[in-house]
């Protein structure tokens, strides 16, 4: 019975499973299908000429990828001395893999796309806002965030 | 069948290389019997293999080629420049035909025909005494010295075609004089399916006999013919025996079968030599004949074994039983005869996918590797047992054990690299052809000399070198070397000369392309660059910088765009290709004397010897190959420049000082008041320019595995790649050339190696 509901949810194109995490006090989410894994934060290797929000590079089983400190990227004050900081390893549509440094991962949520309120700004890293259990959650536009890493058009 | 075809194509590649080597030896004036034989064997083997796979085009062409080569072998004509040239051209066509058979692009038939005609023309030079002479030569040269290729042949269909009944095959005459030529001919069904007729062959034989003033005697072997009731109308059942007059050469008799060799069994035997194996005789002119002859016995047995069976068992009462076994037998043959073609097709399809998916490796290299792996297992066991001991001595031994394991690992790495290493010969020899084709397009006369073809590099590199080298050589032919008139006017030999060489130099491979042309016209390069808006008109550039302008995208000085080059794409593509392989290009050019391009490439794309250093709190790797020396500086050697940077004088040689942490803008770089006693690494880029890098610490020297960072990040200035250290952390590999170039750009636009010239 539960399986059927699961199936119905999975097949309904308007409902997307998202992973919800927090940076400071603000909560954000990204589609769970783009997440490869979640790792504890480890020491990164500083990259020269990197924009400030790039923490550095880490080794993920032989693949070198960069970690973005979302707190700096989104200009949100992070929680100080947080032992639960984790890196969410994501893969964009273009196959670029990178890590997103977040303060904590909260849970998963089924988000109905028709509940999403669009953010008017074009090219923003936020795709929209959605209300889950009276909490306002921002939906990150992953391809914008990751795309900036690869492209040359990074504003430093 | 697929596998065998695959092997055949591999062999073709090898034979073509052999052919190329032989022909270039010939063009260098070496006309030893062995060389000529090697060339001949190569073509012969290709032909033999092709015939057994039914690759008609290839067989026909290689047949003509072989005939001409035979003329050379028997000494009918000498390997003059023109002759070798024609052979080289024919070789190109041949390799294209091989490629076509493999499923590559179809070959332009006019090219084949042209080369065909040229070969025939050569052959007629020496062959004017007519066929008899050539027959004589062929006879005495052939038998012993060639090794027939191992070949797989399609089973010969053992069912036959009905004879056209209007044909008169009745007459039987006694065999004539001893030297008469005896031809046995048995058409397959396919001969008729292709719309040909056995009659045409017989008429053809009669014609050549008439040309020699004789007549043919024909007899027909009807033993295989079933009774009328069992006769299948569209099967071929009979075999002809034709006796040709002695004047007829085997060659001309063979020519009659040229177009049907696939569709019939035939043998041409001198009466006197009848006892010998016919294949030995036939092999010379027609490999198909050889294969067929070799193939002939089993089917012949079948033929005589099976059809007579019905005949002997013919009493009408049993007739009803017969169709079964006969039909089964026929089915069997039909099955075996029809399966090969589709299989061949599939093999061709398969051959299209992987470009040379296998490599040949010397057995001793594999053995070395095996030995090393054995040692590794022992070392591992030793470490395991040592790690269980807790005493201090055990600890010490463990360290020793690990260090021996370290050197073992390195040896294994070298051994694996050696397995992957391939000589650059394959690519270099392809370049001969590029130059030849470019020459024929531009009408120039240019000789390409290859040096160091045995230099070995990783096979991935070998493959990726082809395109850049092709571009460079075309450019050298088209732009580098002047026209013949201009050369003569300049007092140079009319024949242009290009040297393509490869050598190992300090852990890299250096490939140089040197021409003796006019050199780079710097004036014109400069003007063109200004015209195209690449540089401002008032720019002041050194010679070297002007030379490097030709690598700018969209640059071309050629007055006219030719077929070959001059569209302004090419040099920048070459540069990108070489850079993507981790290589650099250098140019040096003397007006009137020529231009030399150098490619410096890493030996492998996977592993690098590096020095681990620390700067600005990060551990980084600098390729050992670019480090000249390390030292601790004295304040007295450092001179400050007005713009705030410093130069250091090392034994009288001045070079810029680069504080690495600052140069890479690593955030936590500590500001240093005094540079005294800092550790520096003197590094050099490919063009010999040097700089001194200030680092915080030199940690270790190690081999690192190169990992790309660009797949998940953009390119970073001063960083060529990254690696993963023993502790699992990421470390950056520095791009020394970029660092040096930028430092020199700040201080002095001339690389240090030009200074002696300036001083002189």
From TrEMBL, chain A:
InterPro entries: CheW, CheW-like_dom_sf, CheW-lke_dom. GO terms for cellular component: cytosol. GO terms for biological process: chemotaxis; signal transduction. Gene3D superfamilies: CheA-289, Domain 4, SH3 Domains. Residues 15-151 form the CheW-like domain. It holds the Pfam family CheW. It comes from the Bacteria. This is Purine-binding chemotaxis protein CheW. It comes from Gluconacetobacter aggeris.
